[in-house]
Design goal:
By secondary structure, the chain is mainly α. The chain is built from five helices and two strands, in the order αβααβαα. The protein has a single domain, classed as Up-down Bundle (Four Helix Bundle (Hemerythrin (Met), subunit A)), CATH 1.20.120.1630.
Length: 175
């Protein structure tokens, strides 16, 4: 099962690369329409943390000889797939406005369709679920705990406040 787990983490890395391609395209679209970027200071930490998650999953599984426990691994796999589905639902709902960076295009209303009907930051829900579930597919609990703690600090103290400030600023400009 270790080989399949490494393949799952590899597939997640490929998915991340696809996100970066979409994000770069969307950034060009946003900047062409007067988009303003915020929160660049915390972005490198996010890149390191998310890249580190993938490396740590494989490293812990191999170095700590973590077992695959079917009663845990399969439900966690389902959560990984569900988190990806939620993430891409967010991407599809936001369209060209979705980005890994915080870029707000002035004079565009907030999106209230798709998962945004029910929650303000559904993409971050996907990230939190994936950050627990992906490592736990192969019982990599140290990675799951470490990523979750660091991610919650990054999201709650830096990313979400920066995004909220940018959105409030754009709302004021449109009034």
């Amino acid at each position: 099962m270790l080989g399949l787990y490494v393949a799952l983490v590899g597939a997640t890395a490929v998915e991340r690369l696809a996100e970066l391609v979409v994000s770069a395209r969307n950034a060009r679209w946003s900047f062409a329409r007067g988009g303003v970027e915020s929160g660049r200071g915390h972005f490198p930490a996010m890149v390191v943390l998310h890249s580190g998650l993938l490396v740590a999953c494989v490293a812990e599984a191999v170095l700590a000889d973590r077992p695959f426990l079917p009663w845990l691994g399969w439900p966690m796999f389902v959560l990984v797939v569900a988190s990806q589905a939620l993430r891409w639902w967010c991407v599809a709902t936001l369209g060209y406005r979705w980005n890994t960076r915080i870029i707000v295009v002035p004079n565009l209303p907030l999106v209230s369709a798709g998962p945004y009907r029910w929650m303000r930051h559904p993409n971050y829900v996907a990230v939190v679920v994936e950050g627990v579930a992906l490592p736990m597919v192969h019982t990599c609990w140290v990675t799951a705990v470490g990523f979750t703690v660091l991610n919650l600090v990054l999201l709650s103290r830096f990313r979400i406040p920066a995004e909220e400030r940018a959105l409030r600023s754009a709302e004021v400009e449109t009034r």
